[in-house]
Amino acid sequence: MPIVLLVRHGQASFGRDDYDRLSDLGREQAEATGRWLRERGLRRPVAVHGSLRRQRDTAALALAAAGHDVEPRVDARWDEYDHIDLVRRYAAARGAGEPRSSREFQVVLDAALVAWVEHGDEGGWPTFTHAVGTALHELVASLEVGQDAVVFTSAGVIAAVCANLLSADAAGLVALNRVAVNGAVTKLAAGRSGIALLTFNEHSHLDGEHLTYR
Length: 214
Description:
This protein is α/β, with parallel strands linked by helices. The protein has helices at about 25-40, 55-65, 85-95, 100-120, 125-140, 155-165, 170-180, and strands spanning about 5-10, 45-50, 75, 150-155, 185-190, 195-200. Helices cover about 45% and strands about 15% of the residues. A six-stranded mixed sheet has the order 3-2-4-1-5-6. Helix 2 links the parallel strand 2 (about 45-50) and strand 3 (about 75). It is globular, with a radius of gyration of 17 Å. The two termini are about 35 Å apart. The mean pLDDT is about 90.
């Protein structure tokens, strides 16, 4: 039974001009995740990441630490939605200023995400989740017998996959998205009956200062 591991990227540069860059801590998280992957005994793994820099760099650092000499495929369908723009548009529509702290940002993001999922435009959330679901099913279909895959992606993508598998509503999606840890791993199994969620947000390899959500 093929196993697909979804890895959230390491901590990016929140509050900086270029968010799409791993912080020093994010690089350490990626390497710690790679060491964890090394102990998992992945079978002839296929590696995939989105087109975002934080996903690509996490993949490079983690795969090197794991000792897997594989060339990752790039698939932009694993990219995160533009959560920063989503928060700005949501705040502007309500005449509020942009959030100033990480905590304020998360509160606004939760509300904005629910609104986007429940009342967003047709080309928004439905298009995003359809692309993610298609990417996952195509990846599973490409795996040979006795072969696993590891995907380096983002919190919103992982939450969307898990919410779909659990038939969760918008509130459930937000709850999953809110607790996603940088460098955490979500485990899926692909069998005859379809794709199943085995574990979500595994982060036992991250603790202390290495445990971050943003």
